[in-house]
Amino acid sequence: MSSRFRVAGLFAGIGGIEVGLRRAFGEKLETTLLCESWEPARQVLAAQFPESDLHPDVATLRDLPSGLDLVAAGFPCTDLSQAGRTAGIRGVQSGLVAHLFEIMQLQNKTVGRAPWLLIENVPNMLALDKGEAMAYLVKELGQLGYRWAYRVVDSRFTGVPQRRRRVLLLASKTEDPRPVLFSDDTAGLDEEQLHQDAFGFYWTEGRTGLGWARDATPTFKGGSSVGIPSPPAIWLPTEQAGRKIVVPCVEDGEALQGFERGWTLPADLGRRNGPRWKLVGNAVTTGVAEWLGQSIKAPGDFDLPSVKWERKGAWPTAAWGDGTDVWKVEASEFPRLDPYTHLTELLSLDKAQPLSWRASSGFWSRLRVSNLGRHPGFREDVAEHVPLAPVPDRKTK
């Protein structure tokens, strides 16, 4: 490896991959190019990565810097996620990944040295349309001559109390991605060691799914089933009435993704429903990228069991391929177990706001007609909270 590790980030968001890689490589990391179309995200990138070239649109990007070591692409999950439109890999937003392969094809023709390629997205793409999205990705990688491997990981392995599952797909023409992704493995998180003084859930759900998480929040999302980019709520059963159902502040959201608090402040336009929560919800957990960077620097041995897999239905949660063959790998979603930060230790409880009357009453009305939320005491505390909830957003005619 050269004295510098040079990275280009496409669909860069607020730079979660690049922040994690910077922690792994230190001063050796050089983020040469960031490409992002959404203006609030560009404001964050411009402030936090002033040394990097910033390009506004992957569709018009034709040239990548020379001498790159890695190209990262956390392409939009809008058409792949359960919270999104589920239009599939050919959808308007998720289909933008096609530009990545056009760029890499051009890179292969004009630059002798091919970099690592990292793709990040939601696990639903392994199952949606019988795994058509993953089939498309590996086909394109095969045409580029890349060997690839992928693994679903849960962000909690980095110690943050957010249950966030993501696919990491790593590919290379010259290197073997398997020791990078599969040399670390554990039996997983011991749920019995988690505290029971805080439970995260989606208040924007009710009839279909709560996203229930013990001593953690569920996955932060850029949107929800009711179209609101909002933080999950947190049930604090030991707090006083009126403070048992709260929402974290956006700075807590940044910390739950591994960023410094205040990371998205450059995009704060002073509006009540500004873009910061959506920026956080769309980000990559920095600790996940840090682990990946450390593994690229010093890969271990690949010795996990793997068996040849014939495509049928959803793809496995971990696999590798070379040419047309696919091999399923027996790997957990917890490559390692960093010291866990319990949710109440991370939360700024003095800044957490009680879930509003409008939000809590709407959630309660949906909850009552579902079979969800049966944890002892939860329904009773939601019902108690509604009449005590703050009402500044309650509109009267």
TrEMBL record:
Matching SUPFAM superfamilies: S-adenosyl-L-methionine-dependent methyltransferases (SSF53335)
Annotated keywords: Methyltransferase, Restriction system, S-adenosyl-L-methionine, Transferase
GO BP term, pick one: methylation
InterPro entries named among the record's database cross-references: C5-Methyltransferase, C5_DNA_meth_AS, C5_MeTfrase, SAM-dependent_MTases_sf
S-adenosyl-L-methionine found in the keyword field: yes
Active-site positions on this chain: 77
Top-level taxon of the source organism: Bacteria
UniProt protein name: Cytosine-specific methyltransferase
Source lineage: Bacteria, Bacillati, Actinomycetota, Actinomycetes, Micromonosporales
